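Progress against Task 2.4 (sequence-to-structure conversion) is shown through the following example record, which the project officer requested during the mid-term review.
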Amino acid sequence: MDTIWRPDLLDTPGPKYKAVMEAIRARIASNHLKNGEKLPPVRDLAWKLGITPGTVARAYTLLTDDGTLRAEVGRGTFVATPDPKTPLWTDIPLEVDSATHNSEYQPYQVNLFSPHLPSVGQATLIRTLLAEVAADPPSGMMHYPTRSGAAPAREAAKAWLSSAPLGSFSADDIVLSHGGQNAIMLIFQALLRGRRPAVLVEDLAYPGFRRAAELLRADVIPVAMDEHGVMPDALEAAIKAHDAQVFCTSPEVHNPTCGFTPEARRAELVEVIRRHDLSILEDDCYRLGAAQAPSYRMLAPERSWYISSISKSVTPALRLGIAVAPKGQAAVLRRTAEYSFFGLATPMTDLAAKLLIHPDLAPMMQRARDEIGAYVHCAVNVLGSYDLEWRSDVPFLWLRLPEGWRAGAFVQAAEAQGVRIRAAEEYACRDARAPHAVRFAVNAGVGIESYERALVRLRDLLNNPPESIGV
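Structure tokens generated for the chain above:
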């Protein structure tokens, strides 16, 4: 065994952990490592190769996740033995933060950068439905997508949106997109005109608004907010100062602050927007529970564009977004989508038609919400003594940093402790001042104990700000 582990196996370009992974795969393929054979302990192999234990542990973890290796607590790591009775798929967590090979070492980051849903059966359901689609595709497999062929999927999307207070709309008002971000881009393409149009966004806003606008050479203008959302006077001033054409907002779940815009404020903003003839783009992708107020499409149906997706409630893997056009404007949105990509792939629309109305989906989504709530409450228990904004049905939290910490420095310090989070600067426009705050997400792909340990590391940092940073 010892003779196959030589430092020269790392003489390849790229990260060392990838070189270790490829070396192990090559030795399995050449039968130098046989099914069921035990690999060296992390620290022993690291010493033989002249690299850090973290590098070896990361390679072992990734190979365990993809089924190449098998880890047994207290026994070690082994070459996985294929079991013909076992399905070829498993639900694999996005991240793990500890090496099962050595309880003292935690080499792999806990990714709190973006939310990760718990696996509560939706993957199995999707696989089952994909098999049904593959066996008997309703739309066939030899034709371009058509509007009529996607009609069952749009009807299913309408049913899936039944919990959203959208007012009167039909399946013909819906356009399916490649995720919520693609829906934003389609709406901008349908709306924006002129050489330098302006897009208005909340002072802190989902970065996808800014990125889509910049791709279309639009100016992005932040609008001041208070605890209830964008302020009507600030919105009116921004409209007058710029060639503003659309106001982008997330009123039900404000990203990143967890805020909510009450109905009275929405009505005030609609009054300003109607006075200046703007459009509204409402992003509702993060709402997991019941809506607390009427959507802008209900309040101003003639000018409000609504988007949602299944990424935060079912899975982000399918990239299925839903855009609902204002009354009388569905044709321009359909045309934009058809000119861009003809339509979603027919297997995807066939899958959507089955998935979105499947009787098992709603209970799964409720279980996912319950589990997300448990992670949120875990975070509150650990960090609740700090200035923390949270909601039990929102898969991220907003933390205002104490004196002594700036957001960029805190993010770097957290990453050095193996925890990835986002600084407030990522949600602000390029020239705007951002608060000293961070957003961290629920990652239900790791066990709640691992999640809690990551939060304890954040708390330790908060308790010990660096002396070099002024207040």
